[in-house]
Amino acid sequence: MKLEWQIESDHYRGSGQQHLEDPEFRRQRRRRTRRILLTVLAMFAVVAAVLWFIQHRLNEADERVRLLLENTVRAEITALNLGEQVTFERIQRSASDEWLRTQAEWYLQYQADKVITDRVLTGRILSMTVERQRGRVQVEEIENGVPYVRTWFYWNYDAVRDEAGNVLQPAGWYHVPPDYTFWGEPRAIQRERFVVRYQALDAPFAASLVAQLSGWYDLLCAALDCSRLSYLTVDVVPNPGGRVTWQSEADWQLIVPSPYTTRARYDQPFYGALAREVANLLAQRAVSTVSLTPDRELDSQFVKESAERWLVGRWLQVDNGAYLIESIVQQYGAASISRLLAEMRPNSAISLVSRALQIDLGSAPLDWRDFLSYRLAVEEQAARRGDLQTLARLYEPTPQGQQRAAERLMATGGATVVVSVTRETSPQGLPQLFAVTADGQAVIFRLVDGIWVRAG
User: Fold this and answer.
1) Which DSSP symbol is given to 122?
2) Phi, psi of 283 (to 5 degrees)
3) What is the pLDDT of residue 162?
4) What pLDDT does 2 receive?
5) How far apart are CA 231 and CA 254, in angstroms?
6) What span, in angstroms and rounded, lies between the C-alpha atoms of 89 and 113?
7) Rounded to whole angstroms, how far apart are CA atoms 108 and 26?
8) Contact 370/322 with Cβ under 8 angstroms?
9) Do the Cβ atoms of 337 and 328 come closer than 8 Å?
10) Which residues pair with 453 in a beta bridge?
11) Torsion-angle region of residue 412: left (phi > 0), alpha (psi -120 to 50) or beta?
């Protein structure tokens, strides 16, 4: 007779064996799972194929649209180059007749220019952007071996039909007025001392501007105390006919018009008059920030303006006539400019150079051409307005010198540009400068109490 606990144990073992899964049922369950997975994968594959097909067709449609735009641009360029005015005018379209008149005038001007220049639209498309019905194309033009870029805008019109369904004006791309809202997404390039903000179309110009500004600031900070200068923000905006300007007198926010609103250099986007305008404004703002405002027609005004001209000349690699400052930098380093401006007061005479640099003006190897030209120009202006007080200040403080100043009131119109200067010693043993003007006139300046004054 089994014990009660043995009977219960046998019962539990029998029950476990009864719940073992049937092998065939397990195989069927696995087959069903595989079929479900395969079905899901097949559905994903079908969806992916459909999406690929749709995307492929969209890409094909986009490519056809771009090809049609490209063909329109090339037809327009061909019409310009061959002188086919009717074809050219058919490609122009606008809700305003002003655009059609403007383009007709530009066509005639282009034909006239071709006769006297070698300018030519090459047919090369530099960039093309299509956004729904809008198109923006940049084309290459070459003149005197220099590549330029022109930015044109197009609209993909639907066909215009009459009530009977006849086509009055075919569908397609037409050259339309500039669309300054179609300039691309906002971007920015930030550096330690400045940031350039622009839109996508201006990317090449912005890159060129940033490269130039980086080099300019290296020189600027070698000459001035940049810790006193504010952070510069440059905003490039599509403003046709606009000029480079500060947003306000106080803020260091410079507004620069995009060069692509007109014909622009392709190889050097930041170039020419635009670069000079930026350089002039930045130099003036920087020098004014670290110096006092000079009194009119005094030597301090010359020093301030010369520092500005020197910066611009160095930045643009041109002779800007800042001969005295350039000779000072060559002898005593770029930081000497900062010392000059720190020493300068509104009514400072040229003796500030001696004090700031601790040098003898009579013997220092400096180029005085532009300073003497400035003095002669001030003298000429004073003579024209009958200002004897200013003339007396510019001449030797001797009876003979003051007599010459009075006589100068009666003579105007002399040359004020000095082309050469030679250092000499006067019969009285004073340092003097023998200057020759552009018209061959000889002028003598003597150093009296640390200041150059006219002696003859």
Assistant:
1) E
2) -65, -45
3) 78
4) 47
5) 11
6) 19
7) 88
8) yes
9) yes
10) 446
11) beta
Question: What token pair was written down for 391?
Answer: 């003339």
Q: Judging by beta carbons within 10 Å of its beta carbon (0-12, 13-18, 19+), is residue 348 exposed, middle or buried?
A: buried
pLDDT of residue 46: 66
pLDDT tens digits along 233-263: 999 999 998 999 999 988 999 999 999 999 9
What is the token pair recorded at 171?
């569908």
Q: Is 96 left (phi over 0), alpha (psi -120 to 50) or beta?
A: beta
The Cα 405–Cα 393 span in angstroms is 9
d(CA 197, CA 389): 51
What pLDDT, on a 0 to 100 scale, did the predictor assign at position 56?
A: 45
| Token digits of residue 133 | 């019905």
Quote the radius of gyration of the chain (alpha carbons, Å). Answer: 39
- CB–CB of 113/106 below 8 Å? no
Positions in the chain whose pLDDT score sits under 70: 1-21, 42, 44-62
- What's residue 413's pLDDT? 78
* Residues 236 and 273 sit within 8 Å (Cβ to Cβ): no
Closest CA to 119 of 83, 145, 89: 145
How many angstroms from the chain centroid is the CA of residue 297?
33
Q: Tell me which residue has tokens 């920030």.
A: 289
Q: What are the beta bridge partners of residue 92? A: 175
Q: Which residue has the tokens 């043993």?
A: 429
Structure tokens of 21? 């899964």
- Going from the C-alpha of 79 to that of each of 135, 192, 230, the distances in angstroms are 20, 49, 51
Whole-structure pTM value: 0.84
| Cα–Cα distance for residue pair 87/174, rounded to 1 Å | 12
Compute the distance between CA of residue 157 and CA of residue 213 in angstroms, rounded to an integer.
Answer: 43
Q: How far, CA to CA in Å, does 135 sit from each of 24, 266, 404?
A: 67, 20, 71
Alpha carbon distance 278, 109 (integer Å): 30
pLDDT at 58: 47
Closest-CA residue to 150 (of 189, 119, 186, 187): 119
Residue type, 104: A
Do residues 294 and 282 make contact, with C-beta atoms less than 8 angstroms apart?
no
Nearest CA among 23, 21, 41 for reference residue 33? 41
The residues, ordered by sequence, that sit 6+ positions from 400 with a Cβ below 8 Å of its Cβ are none
